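Repro:
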Amino acid sequence: MMKAYRLLTYLFFLNMLAKRIIPCLDIRDGQTVKGVNFVNIINVGDPVELGKLYAEQGADELVFLDITATHEGRKTFVELVKRIALNLDIPFTVGGGISEIRDAEALLAAGADKISINSSAVRNPQLIDDLARNFGSQFVVVAIDALETDSHWTVTVNGGRIPTDKELFSWAKEAENRGAGEILFTSMNHDGTKNGFANEELALLSENLTIPLIASGGAGSMEHFAEVFTLGKADAGLAASIFHFHEIAIPDLKHYLRDRGICVR
């Protein structure tokens, strides 16, 4: 009995330490899209089929971001979320246009396991507290889109269209203190460039936070994932175009990381 307990405990902590590979579906008008530095957006495929494919390939989670919902002043496409969730057996995070408790309730009912808030959290930080209190911190992902200018990281809203007076590191820490369960940081400078993640900033964020950190923006090779988990100290690596355009297969990426001593699920 003791040996079995020790084995289960070991497996639990191993799973907790394992790095996660997360494909992202950026959604506009019901279709998956991708751009570079948040502009030059093109359609890349059907989100239902892509979500199903990534789950079958061994993705650890799937993120769905309705990238124009906030800017257009509307809610996330709940029916599309339902259709995607029906084909998934992995955790599913949904974001876009969430501004109140009932938005989160609707997405949870539609099949989301976690919700991601960005612009609404910046404009109303109390929303983080309210969501964490109602659903638990593990349900709340605070996404941060930030742009570096003259060594200063400015938090933006509305899909990167509007700069704010918030600074990346202080805002991430505030989000954690208010009850966020994870931080999803996207470097707008690196987004879609395929030149690697913002590892220096990610390492600083990781050192200042006690909650998991998801890295986004810049993935272009398997080596970039190895770097983001070692140099960047991220808990998860999120990417879009390299998976959408079949440049990297998720099973191959996990094999590559394991060969380099990086624990993945």
